[in-house]
What we know:
Largest sheet: 8 strands, mixed
InterPro entries: Aminotransferase_I/II_large, HTH_trans_reg/aminotransferase, PyrdxlP-dep_Trfase, PyrdxlP-dep_Trfase_major, Tscrpt_reg_HTH_GntR, WH-like_DNA-bd_sf, WH_DNA-bd_sf
Organism: Actinoplanes flavus
GO molecular function, one term: transaminase activity
Pfam families: Aminotran_1_2, GntR
Low-confidence stretches: 80-87, 444-448
Protein name: Aminotransferase class I/II-fold pyridoxal phosphate-dependent enzyme
Amino acid sequence: MSAQYQVSGDSAAEISASIEAGIVRGDWIAGAALPSVRVLAGSLHVSPATVAKAYQELRQRGVIETEGRRGTRVRSRPAVAVTRAALRTPAPPGLRDLSTGEPDPHLLPPLAPAIAALAARPGPPQGYASAVTMPELADAARPRLLDEGVPVSGAVIVVTSGALDSIERVLTAHLRPGDGVAVEDPGWAALIDLVAALGLRAVPFAVDAEGPDPEALAAALRSGARAVVITVRAQNPTGAAVGAERAARLRELLAGHPGVVVIEDDHAAELAERQPHCIGPVTGSWAFVRSASKPFGPDLRIAVLAGDETTAARVAGRMRIGMGWVSTVLQRLLLRLWRDEETTELVAHAARTYAERRRSLRAALRAEGVEAFGETGINVWVPVPDETRAVAALRDRGYAVAPGALFRMGSPPGIRITISTLEPAEATDLAGAVAAAVNPAGVVPPMR
């Protein structure tokens, strides 16, 4: 090792801290190889067990990863959102920012009237022992889900602090560090980071316009994945939506793996114009998660989790000895929003608007000879030969888009374009810029 890469420390804690400090300073770039356990132990004059423990701590926190014969390396993507945010450079002033992945603030329903109504009639005070998932909210959630074909008649409903919180709680309720989790590739960046931060092993599987590729998911399950996370619609970043036929194939596949935990993520909820086609419950452990943040605003950090009795009990029990419960103020607020007809229409209007904006861009891209994916949701995925070139070329033309590297593990390159604020009148100019930036030869690259 050269001088600037020297690791110091006599204990596992000191060694792991030294390595992490070096990564933060940039002494090691993403994907760089670390010394083997025996080599580093020899240079530090400590036992191999001490170095192995340091590496184990770093792996469990998602800082490094072990890739078989390739050895131990700095993780190719950051393990926490704060670090990932540093990689996602803010759009410079003057650029049309289509990189955020966030809903249009102007299409979010106003929360002030509902908050004022709650303040006027706050309801009975809640004590520490009685504040849990409100029965009224669970009773309201069940028919809403059933009306869309989500099989929750026999499920237990628990309220959590959003989709990612739900997924984390289910994973930690059933899995242990080192277990494999099958995740979509390309997929939700925060989920990929969460899996690493929990000390779990991400097992990628390919997706297409209909969701998970059954053969790719079968391979992930054969490799030992003990859980799978599937986005039922508005998949981030591709906009994929699981269809009825694909859901049937996935159910048949997963029926042969009864010990696998199946988590279905419905983060877009009411904003997705298609009804969800669920895969579960088909194994012994299942959870369906619906978040309120996309349709009602990022500040409403609340989700309903419907699952089997054991999964729901473990999630609720762990919450009780940690955060306790989701604020009943937030629960009453969500219940009021669900019951308000004007709010319901505003959310429906937003869903129609996003669909029009997404279809306009895809049609304009097709007219330019560029294939793009985005069946539902607020993002469009465009396969490209070279992400760096495409992102830079679009920036030069006045547009900021997200590089696919933020969402990929082994899938081919692409860019994500957020259409939430994109007016249909802008689609033609943007499509021309995309065509010139990513496909000057007129050859359509495959999605996978």
